[in-house]
């Protein structure tokens, strides 16, 4: 197994490829590429490397979570709609020894009732929501502290 490189995997779920076009009043005007660029810049300043993946497919998210063991020190996950009902993603997170930080651009607790419940939060290291693109940056800072022994 290759040495763990203090690398963070940023996983994005369904419809996040439409950021910048999809409901900008809720999700902001930045595209996913814009957010990835900001995260990559912040990661470099924190001494971390980062990989990105976006998929609209639940099974791909599960595969990537399972494959993270031995390759990543942390996962930052925006499971999007899967947050609210995917027991399969929840079980994948619980099955691996890689901490997962759950992120959301919007405050899911100020939105529709069905968005108030996260089935994955009970098995994640923590959750950050409501800060737009900064949710990812805050999660990255938390990951850096965790990786470098700050918490």
Automatic annotation (TrEMBL):
Catalytic activity: 3-dehydroquinate = 3-dehydroshikimate + H2O
Binding site for substrate: 78, 84, 91, 105-106, 115
Known pathway: Metabolic intermediate biosynthesis; chorismate biosynthesis; chorismate from D-erythrose 4-phosphate and phosphoenolpyruvate: step 3/7
Site (Transition state stabilizer): 22
Gene Ontology molecular function, alphabetical: 3-dehydroquinate dehydratase activity
InterPro entries: DHquinase_II, DHquinase_II_CS, DHquinase_II_sf
Keywords: Amino-acid biosynthesis, Aromatic amino acid biosynthesis, Lyase
EC number(s) per entry: 4.2.1.10
Gene3D superfamilies per record: Dehydroquinase, class II
CDD domains in UniProt: DHQase_II
GO BP annotations, alphabetical order: amino acid biosynthetic process; aromatic amino acid family biosynthetic process; chorismate biosynthetic process; quinate catabolic process
Active site: 27, 104
A Pfam match: DHquinase_II
This protein's record includes keyword Chaperone: no
HAMAP family in the cross-refs: AroQ
Self-association state and partner proteins as the record states: Homododecamer.
Summary of the function given for this chain in its UniProt record: Catalyzes a trans-dehydration via an enolate intermediate.
Sequence similarity: Belongs to the type-II 3-dehydroquinase family.
Protein name (database record): 3-dehydroquinate dehydratase
């Amino acid at each position: 197994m290759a040495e763990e490189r203090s690398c963070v995997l940023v996983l994005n779920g369904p419809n996040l490829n439409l950021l910048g076009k999809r409901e900008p009043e809720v999700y902001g005007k930045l595209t996913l590429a814009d957010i990835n660029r900001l995260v990559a810049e912040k990661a470099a300043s924190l001494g971390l490397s980062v990989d990105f993946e976006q998929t609209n497919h639940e099974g791909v998210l599960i595969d990537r979570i399972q494959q993270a063991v031995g390759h990543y020190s942390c996962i930052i996950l925006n499971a999007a709609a899967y947050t609210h009902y995917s027991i399969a993603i929840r079980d994948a997170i619980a099955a691996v020894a890689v901490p997962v930080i759950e992120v959301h651009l919007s405050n899911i607790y100020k939105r529709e009732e069905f968005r108030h419940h996260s089935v994955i939060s009970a098995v994640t290291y923590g959750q950050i929501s409501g800060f737009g693109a900064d949710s990812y940056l805050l999660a990255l800072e938390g990951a850096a502290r965790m990786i470098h022994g700050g918490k």
